[in-house]
């Protein structure tokens, strides 16, 4: 984080009960941070919390449950955090998923877009005052790497044939757009925001139907290399979330080794703002 004592830091990470999120949470707990895990399932969240506490010896591990595809739950998670914790030094928007067919949330938003983009956008906005009052603070959005563009005229896939990985890629591109827009807003505040691509790794993205794992196994066979575990992929996120040399980075698209080139659409500041406005239009009033 910064040069101050990291044991005084409070971190919140979404999707923390398995895969990449759990690996990141385990590392932050080892560093002595007060860690708030946001998980959809109470039972899986409690199991992960128990395992992290047992392995790290850190007792300051807390759980907030919520289905981040639903905006009411995002608001409830933020409200519970602000009620129970007075500071926030690190926000990691990690939770994400992909779906084999088009589904809508209760808010009428395509589900991949809801969890991968709208939820982190809304959660960040709700927690931004707490981050600013705790500065220096960092926001890390866990991204992916697709050379694609968002169709702002069909965010809910009403006109196009739904394709799981294309919908996933566009939702993650939305996160990248709003990362860049927010970074300009935060310049000089002591709060930074960056998007980190952890690399390809084996995960449970897509749920129990195994669609994502089947996809990446096919890619691995084609390219001829093994897919690394989440623990290895987590190292890039952890580095940019905690390393002193990353403290000054703001509005960057990063891998473990440093900045990477964003898709052309995301490099357009005017388009960044259009995506912000389109995202705000998808958010229901509280």
TrEMBL record:
Keywords, ordered alphabetically: Oxidoreductase
Keyword Oxidoreductase set for record: yes
A GO MF term: oxidoreductase activity
Protein name from the UniProt record: Short-chain dehydrogenase
Species of origin: Ectothiorhodospira haloalkaliphila
């Amino acid at each position: 984080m910064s040069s101050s004592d990291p044991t005084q830091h409070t971190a919140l990470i979404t999707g923390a009960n398995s895969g990449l999120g759990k690996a990141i949470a385990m590392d932050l707990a080892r560093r002595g941070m007060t860690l708030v895990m946001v998980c959809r399932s109470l039972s899986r969240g409690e199991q992960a919390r128990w395992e992290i506490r047992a392995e790290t010896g850190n007792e300051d591990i807390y759980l907030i449950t919520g289905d981040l595809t639903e905006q009411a739950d995002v608001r409830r998670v933020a409200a519970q955090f602000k009620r129970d914790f007075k500071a926030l030094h690190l926000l990691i928007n990690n939770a994400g998923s992909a779906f084999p067919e088009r589904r809508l949330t209760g808010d009428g938003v395509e589900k991949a877009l809801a969890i991968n983009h709208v939820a982190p956008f809304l959660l960040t906005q709700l927690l931004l005052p707490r981050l600013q009052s705790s500065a220096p603070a960092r926001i890390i959005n866990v991204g992916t790497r697709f050379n694609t563009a968002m169709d702002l005229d069909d965010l809910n896939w009403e006109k196009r044939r739904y394709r799981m990985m294309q919908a996933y890629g566009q939702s993650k591109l939305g996160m990248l757009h709003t990362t860049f827009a927010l970074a300009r807003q935060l310049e000089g505040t002591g709060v930074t925001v960056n998007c980190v691509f952890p690399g390809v790794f084996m995960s449970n993205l897509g749920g129990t139907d195994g669609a994502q794992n089947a996809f990446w196994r096919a890619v691995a066979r084609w390219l001829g290399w093994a897919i690394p575990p989440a623990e290895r992929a987590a190292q890039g996120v952890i580095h940019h979330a905690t390393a002193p040399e990353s403290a000054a980075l703001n509005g960057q698209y990063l891998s473990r080794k440093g900045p990477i080139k964003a898709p052309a659409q995301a490099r357009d500041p005017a388009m960044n703002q259009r995506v912000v406005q389109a995202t705000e239009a998808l958010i229901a009033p509280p």
